[in-house]
Amino acid sequence: MHRISDEDAYKYGIETRHDLMDSGERRFRLICSTDGSSYCRTVASEKGAWQSSHYHKSVSEIYVVQSGWMVYAELKEEDFKLRVLREGETVSFAPFVHHNIYLSTEAVIHTIKYGKSEDNDWYASPELDNLTQHLSSEALLSI
Description:
Layout lengths: L5 H6 L2 E7 L5 E7 L4 E7 L5 E2 L3 E2 L4 E8 L1 E8 L2 E8 L3 E4 L4 E6 L4 E7 L8 E2 L1 H7 L4 H5 L2
Antiparallel strand pairs: 1-2, 2-3, 3-11, 4-10, 5-12, 6-9, 6-11, 7-8, 7-10
């Protein structure tokens, strides 16, 4: 086995990107820029928080809870759903399904995006943000 350098991987459209989000989340990404697929390991901050509600037109997403817990919110054709996921549980979202994620303190999740995508296939969902951003961890754990 031989290690592939970051430079060689980039020739195939593969790159890494790591970000510290404003919420304190740490995101470690492997991006396949040629087709829009990606993997992201997200480590939540020391304080639970919502991400930003969004949807995709071309890609699907799978979320896997590694540790801690998360809540997903889904808005699909006027149908609003909230569900708590614990370690080992998963959820997936098809294109055009508006969704948002709340991560508990120091939770770790994995996100996989797949499908053909145009550049930046991420669209804000202010209508779902209006339904989720005010919900606290205490309220979410009672669902």
